[in-house]
Amino acid sequence: MRFFTKKRVVLFLLFIFPLFFYLILSSGINNFAKLPVITKNITDVALIDSSNKVTFQNNISVVCFLGEDIQAIKGAIFNLNQKIYKPFYGFKNFQVIAIYPASKTEEVKKLKDKVGAFTDMVKWKFVASSNEEILALYDSFKTGEALNNLQISKAFIVDKEVNLRGRLKDKDYADGKLFGYNMNSVAILKDKMKDDVKVLLAEYRLALKKNDADREI
Known about the structure:
By secondary structure, this protein is of the alpha/beta class. Helix content is 44%, strand content 17%.
């Protein structure tokens, strides 16, 4: 038992254990399943936001396109609010961005009032823009699916580096690619999108822990 002297125990705690902990942490981060990048370097919403207050940069964003028929998409937005916004709005840098034509400001105001009746809207961001700018922003997602009257019933995940995230091996798609999540389906929002937002949040949380560990060594 002479090997375990007080001096050696102190040396182990000061030098060997922190290194061992770092190696375990690094291994865990490298092996963690990350949410795939579907489209790199999409257009930042900041380029079409006249208020200069909304950006994808350094935020985890859920993005939807309300289009010209606000009534038609209202139910989908309520689903998104209940199944995605409410569970995550307390997380730092999380936001939901709803993009709509500037001509629909009054209709969107009514929608905001209805959603906000039982919701803290602090992380909801509504961005009005021209038809041309909305199309240009959406086209940068490269989903292969067109907007219909500037509207689509899908929500999208954009990471802090302004990349579109999603799935590359989704069993419900022939090519495996899931670009956006159908807001009309509570099951898809609850079982797929919610899980994927969790994965992305965990990815950034682990990256932050790794950076902290690097600084301590």
